[in-house]
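job 3f2a | input accepted
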Amino acid sequence: MKTVLCYGDSNTYGYNPENGMRYPESIRWTARLQTILGTQYKVIEEGCNGRTTIYDDPVEGWKNGFGYLRPCLNTHKPVDIVTLMLGSNDLKEVFHLSAQQIAEGAEKLVHEIIDFTSEKQGFVPKIILISPPEIGEGLTSSPFYGSFSLDAIERSRQFPEYYKKVAESNGCIFVDAAEHIKPSTLDSLHLSPEAHAKLAEVLGDVILNEIK
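job 3f2a | predicted structure (212 res):
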C-alpha cells in the first residue's frame, strides 16, 4: 500500500464556506481521492485552517507549516507521495509578501521534505507541488476581507509562474489548481463541493498516470 500525505491549509482540511465548519468526509477532496485511488493507496489528511508556508502568524504562530512538517512526515513514514498546497494564507495583509516570496517559502518546505525523508526513511517521496487556487473577485464581500486586501487577488494569479519554477528546480510534479477550480463565491477563498470533486479527479489522474 502506498501512502499519500496531503499537506495543506483549510482547503485540504475541508473548510465549508457556508457555515465555517468542516465538510463531511464524503465531500472533501482528500476522501474523494482515496476513493479514486482505491485500496492500494492510503490517503492521509493533514490540512490545517490558516496554515502558512514558513511564516509565523502573529496571533497563532503554531500554524506555521514549516514547524509541523518534520513531525508530520515522521509520524506517517514511510511516505510515498506528498501533495503540497500552501500559500493562500501567506497572502494575508499582515505578511506583506509577494507571490515570488510565497513560492520561495513553498520551496523551503520542498527542501525540508527531501532532506528529512532522505535521512529518516531512506528515499524521497514523489512531491506534487500544487499552486493554490486564485482568490475570488468577490473578496470585498467576504468575511475574510480585511485580513486579505484586494491586491491578494492579483498576487494569487501570479502563483503558477513561480510555483512551476520551484517544481521544475526540485524535481516535483507541478499542478496549477487555478486551471481546474475556483473558490466559492460565498467567501472567495474556500472550495465548493464541486471544486473538491474536480481537484480529487485531477490529482487522481496525476498519481495513477504520471507517478510510476
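job 3f2a | The chain has seven helices and five strands.
job 3f2a | closed
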